[in-house]
Write a structure and sequence with these properties.
2 copies of one chain form a homodimer. Chain A is of the alpha+beta class. Chain A has 6 helices and 3 strands. In chain A, strands 1-3-2 form a 3-stranded antiparallel sheet. In chain A, helix 3 packs across helix 4. Chain A is elongated. The relative contact order of chain A is 0.13. Mean pLDDT of chain A is 87; it is low at 105-109. Chains A and B meet through helix 1, helix 5 and helix 6 of A and helix 1, helix 5 and helix 6 of B. Chain A binds a DNA duplex through residues 11, 13, 27-29, 37-47, 59, 61-64.
DNA sequence: TTTAAATATTCCTTTACAGGAATATTCCCT
DNA sequence: AGGGAATATTCCTGTAAAGGAATATTTAAA
């Protein structure tokens, strides 16, 4: 799992950019306008997202269309797999706890 | 989706703490030793994780046992749902592209 | 080839935050 | 009550990064 992914998403504007790009590719100016931030800031944030691999860009004449890449999200999903067992954990723990209690039944306290 | 979750996970030591806690609850001192960081830093990072709701703590005499909470991970998983369609996107896009081509067949260029 | 639009880059300032060292706090034990 | 272990907190310093303003760059069009 790439730490840069979390790093990129931790910043509010960048998080919103990713959210907006979910609806489709968008231009720098449109993104800036949508987020009510200035164009240079938008460019900077997009650069961070680009370096983190969260977005890709397709130059088209004057404009640059930014769009989401799927890989980081798949990677995030894959990383989450390790943690999915947590939300079954309580049952597992209860199970193990009962077994442990049983096996320790003859142990001197 | 809580930005604090990304923020908490963006820091290398905290990411490692979460990774380590996956194997089970652990004490502050053990975490510090395991990560080869100093105890105060461990406490500070754990405080951030605690405030972000990523971990919970159970005081036990002198020691404090930190363990993962499932909620933020479930929330992350739920957030990811919005993005899962991205990795089917290419097919959708191809589909739409073909339809568009067809509907534009009689358009003057 | 000049002009204008869209975007990127640079420089500056300010703020947030991580680490180090020292200290406070809490709890158990005798 | 006093001492020691485990943990939290505070203060300080350095650094990374975000925002603002100005400017550079690229491209299309006249």
């Amino acid at each position: 799992m790439e730490l840069t992914t979390f790093n990129a998403l931790a910043e509010p504007s960048r998080f919103r950019i990713v959210d907006i790009l979910l609806k489709g590719p968008m231009t720098v100016g449109d993104i800036a306008e949508r987020l009510e931030i200035r164009q240079p800031q938008a460019s900077k944030h997009l650069k961070v997202l680009l370096d983190a691999g969260l977005v890709e860009v397709k130059a088209e004449a004057n404009r640059r269309n930014y769009m989401l890449r799927s890989e980081p999200f798949m990677e995030l999903d894959s990383w989450l797999n390790n943690y999915r067992e947590i939300w079954n954990e309580r049952f597992d723990n209860l199970d193990e706890y009962l077994k442990k209690l049983q096996s320790e039944g003859n142990k001197p306290d």
